[in-house]
Design goal:
Chain lengths: 178, 178
Amino acid sequence: MAKRSYPLAKVYGLLEPGPVVLLTTAGKTRPNVMTLSWLTMVEFEPPLVACVVSNRDYSFELLRKSGECAINIPTAELAQKVVSIGNHTGRNMDKFQSLGLTQKPASLVGAPLIAECYASLECRVYDTRMVAKYGLFILEVVKAWVDTAVKDPKTLHHRGKGAFMVAGETIKLRSKMK
Amino acid sequence: MAKRSYPLAKVYGLLEPGPVVLLTTAGKTRPNVMTLSWLTMVEFEPPLVACVVSNRDYSFELLRKSGECAINIPTAELAQKVVSIGNHTGRNMDKFQSLGLTQKPASLVGAPLIAECYASLECRVYDTRMVAKYGLFILEVVKAWVDTAVKDPKTLHHRGKGAFMVAGETIKLRSKMK
């Protein structure tokens, strides 16, 4: 995917529809990637995102220690890899290598970006007050990359137990909403 | 919609795909309804949901004062109403009456359920620690109602400025994920 720098003010439009994302983190020996559906926008600009990562996940430790991650948004052709990522732990496996995902260096954080995803958001941990109780991290998106040639991305939306709704048509209504 | 009681353990499957929802609250003179896209699951069971309501919204006061709300999930045929709800404030308008939405009494909370929505979740405010800084409420879903005849709901997913992705087909992959 030929991703370009994307305005931070427009990041909410990528996450508001509720796609499954792939969260990447840097590690001492190798980076990791996890599948995540529990996230929401919290502020438009600078864009803040709340995401929930269980303390049973290997990514939890990496996110806490590094204070950085990237949110990568996959489309439907990556569905099988999205499930495989969610079904394996990175504790004893290099998921990038075994699943054939291409790492690209980020510009501002240590976590890698996933080349095969149409959008990648570089994030820094912004607020950890809700981490102990809920695993809820507030992240600040500090840099965004999008392949703007992808007009209506066929994002994946998890309905549970491996069932995903695939993004359908986009309709446009007159609205004053942001 | 003929909604029936729905297991709390399955609520995450309704919200994980990221639909736009209609948040209802009770008020002294009349209830209110707002359009909301900023929410995520936080815990499976009891189901906890984080949602962001701006302190500029009339619903913010009602949610804070009552400590209760309902999350109603609309489908595509309600798109115009969803936009109208988002474009008006309930401070000086009865949105239910002017938009022709039917209120149904909830079983455990004072906020009304919207009959035209295929799913409604009765919620109590569970944690307000992030309200002052982010408008982020943690809600506990205490009762769920779903029209289970609606198999693949054509939910709306906001892309910004009145553009909505409408839920497309559902694909099923073998997965150990919940």
